[in-house]
Design brief:
By secondary structure, the protein is of the alpha/beta class. It has helices spanning 9-17, 35-38, 41-55, 70-81, 136-147, 166-169; strands at 19-22, 30-33, 62-66, 84-88, 98-105, 108-115, 124-132, 151-160, 175-180.
Length: 182
């Protein structure tokens, strides 16, 4: 389910700013291109503002952004709510000691990593990405944070592809989404 207040004029602006590219990167995929959202300063600001309005005052101390597009939305949200930003990266991209979480893909596995010591037990985290499809990456981020005793309050995405049922994989973790994709 997308953002509850569909009457909010900002949702229509955000949705119309996202370009859908058929058959990219392969036939049958309807790619949700957020670069056009970023080219529209009003729609981009609306996106950040809606997340900030939801999370301000919720005692969130960590915004964990999933590589790469979570890095676009996470830092301005973190700054606005007074939280730190923690990048969740693909393997071998972070210098120094890291903690990793492996997750399954359609064919094979992948990993996400964060720096050891980036978060502390008992902190409250928001996990952010641009899109939820199957939910595998968000689940890996949740598992990684929970392994170090961080309380994942909620996951947030700009776009959800509901037909792929990624929300179901999150179990009891709440998911906040602004728009449903095609």
């Amino acid at each position: 389910m997308a953002f509850e207040d569909a009457q909010d004029h900002r949702i229509a602006r955000i949705s119309s700013a996202i370009r859908v590219i058929p058959d990219f990167p392969k036939p049958g995929i309807m790619f949700q291109d957020i670069t056009t959202l970023l080219l529209d300063p009003t729609a981009f600001k609306d996106t950040i503002d809606l997340f900030v309005e939801r999370y301000k005052g919720k005692n969130i101390s960590v915004v964990a952004g999933i590589e790469a597009r979570g890095f676009i939305f996470g830092p301005p949200i973190a700054l606005a709510i007074g939280a730190k930003f923690v990048p969740m990266r693909k393997p071998n991209k972070l210098p120094g000691a890291v903690i990793s979480q492996e997750y399954s893909l359609e064919y094979g596995t992948d990993k996400i990593e964060m720096h050891v010591g980036a978060v502390q037990a008992g902190e409250r985290a928001l996990v952010i990405d641009d899109l939820i499809a199957t939910g595998g990456t968000l689940c890996a981020a949740i598992n990684l944070l929970e392994r170090v005793e961080v309380d994942v309050v909620e996951c947030a995405c700009v776009i959800e592809l509901p037909e792929l049922k990624g929300r179901d994989r999150l179990g009891d973790k709440p998911l906040f989404v602004l728009v449903s994709g095609a």
